[in-house]
Amino acid sequence: MRQLYRTTDMANMAFAKALLQGEDIDCFEMDVNMSVLEGSIGIFPRRLMVGEDDFDAARAALLDNGFSLEE
């Protein structure tokens, strides 16, 4: 798996996951428990992971919908 997106904004994370699921791209959200443990004050970002084979398509889907992705 490869990191596609990282954010502390839960709304953007939910939107990104919905976009990928709509494109039939499997994704996995990491660091959810750490985010909950820190009290949801936004210190620890959540990461969205996708398979290596789906990375390019997933990246294009998010970029086409206005997401800013780290290089």
TrEMBL record:
What InterPro entries does the entry give? DUF2007 (IPR018551), N-reg_PII-like_a/b (IPR011322)
What protein does this entry describe? DUF2007 domain-containing protein
Q: Which organism is it from?
A: Roseovarius ramblicola
What SUPFAM superfamilies does the annotation carry?
Answer: GlnB-like (SSF54913)
Give every DUF2007 domain span. 1-62
Q: What are the leading ranks of the lineage? A: Bacteria, Pseudomonadati, Pseudomonadota, Alphaproteobacteria, Rhodobacterales
